[in-house]
């Protein structure tokens, strides 16, 4: 993919993000931050590539992998824990 | 070749699917009912992105879909699984143990991890450009990739050091008061310009000193940017760092030509930016004035003109009687309620009132709590049904019909000075019209303390106001006891 194609995806995704995030109910803004934090750990893709390279890079990659994994597992788990608490009136 | 080498089409489509699942994850948060399935979409998206990357790490022979891993590849995979396992255990333990009042610190700490991971990945890409397929035809890193790398490392480093400071302030390891260095605006601007200049220079000079200087300066600026910002503005800072962590992921996505990373980065970047905007609007502050910092440093100046005015003190029994006779009660909780751990007993009080036929609702200001939506989570944890909880604009017109406005742990968000007094530091901030309610019950530790903004509140001295001076949890417990008799 050339740079312009990637840039196009990026700009369109920014617009999608804008509209999707405005539709999030304010009551769920804390879970929103927790889950965006978890998904921004998709940087793990770069960490995996680095971990599979040679020399110093592989160690940097493994360290990044470990950090990102804390975030991925911790982020989704804490989001799930919060969302489980939101209940309707029982009647 | 600048083209990304040899990822099979199915892998590219898998990354696209992962990006779409992340969009659906955020879309699910439009209502609590769909939010749990949204979170599962997010988990699925992350699993797809990780598995796709792991499967395609070993070279794929031409004409084949799958790699043919050798012994070395499997050893690498074992190290990878180990690293993920360690992170997973740490993450899951933290997620299970963390108190809901500590969510802002936790989110700040998690942001710092994303930031640091971005810096590490950026350095790895610089050191092993061939693994990241970013070598130009001349055998050097392609110029576009150098800019992406430089920016990715810079944003990641700012996210890291900024989040560490935000964590320390929120967690109480560091005082919440702003720390103001002389000439800080000039220093900050200078460092930012220097970072951008170095990133530009990086396209000419591939030397390690350039990227090292960018890293060090970005760590420094993250630190400098956050220390002058006071505790009250932390919700904006946490949202802003959320946004940065997204932009860092997007920059790395550009380097790797990875659709999932670019889509996610854009989503998270926009999300944090919108939340920062919402927080600023709720405080009637401009984003720039928050970032410039210093708010809360000059509050003592206002306190001098305070005059003694008559006010009425109430007891738990008085309050219980009036609440029991009311038709409509609106509870306005602030962070003070959470500090006193009073949310559970407040819900108990509400249950007793509902049993007597009183309509009880909760009114939440956007800046109640230490991060966007924090108070909603705290109430949800105390088993308050979410359909009894209302946002400022949805409930503000109803105070005129309310018999009791029950203010607990909040202060600035009910201060009418925000509407009338042009000289007030909180002028223009949207506030609850509690003064329209028939009776106002104001729970406060003492008459001395004032809110974050350090301004006196006319509501204390109004005819229909009953001051309940005590620890929030204690007095609500007493009200509950009185209601039970």
Q: How large is the radius of gyration of chain B?
A: 27 Å
| Number of distinct helices of chain B | 18
Radius of gyration of chain A: 18 Å
Computed structural class of chain B: alpha/beta
In which range does the helix fraction of chain B lie?
55-70%
How far apart are the termini of chain A?
55 Å
In N-to-C order, the SSE pattern of chain B is: HHHHHHHHHHHHEHHEHEHEHEEH
What global shape of chain A is seen? flat
**Biggest β-sheet: strands ordered side by side in the sheet of chain B:** 3-2-1-4-5-6
Distance between the termini of chain B: 82 Å
Would you mind describing this structure in some detail?
The complex is a heterodimer of chains A (91) and B (485). The model of chain A has no long low-confidence stretch (mean pLDDT 93). Chain A is flat, with a radius of gyration of 18 Å. Helix content of chain A is 74%, strand content 0%. By secondary structure, chain A is mostly helical. In chain A, helix 2 (29-39) packs antiparallel against helix 4 and helix 3 (44-51) runs antiparallel to helix 4 (56-83). Chain B is built from 18 helices and six strands. Chain B has helices at residues 9-27, 32-55, 71-97, 103-127, 143-171, 184-202, 208-226, 234-256, 259-283, 287-292, 300-303, 316-325, 335-339, 343-355, 374-381, 392-395, 417-420, 472-484; strands at residues 328-333, 359-364, 389-391, 404-408, 439-444, 465-469. In chain B, strand 2, helix 15 (374-381) and strand 3 (389-391) form a beta-alpha-beta unit. The termini of chain B are far apart. Chains A and B meet through helix 1, helix 2, helix 3 and helix 4 of A and helix 1, helix 2, helix 3, helix 4 and helix 8 of B.
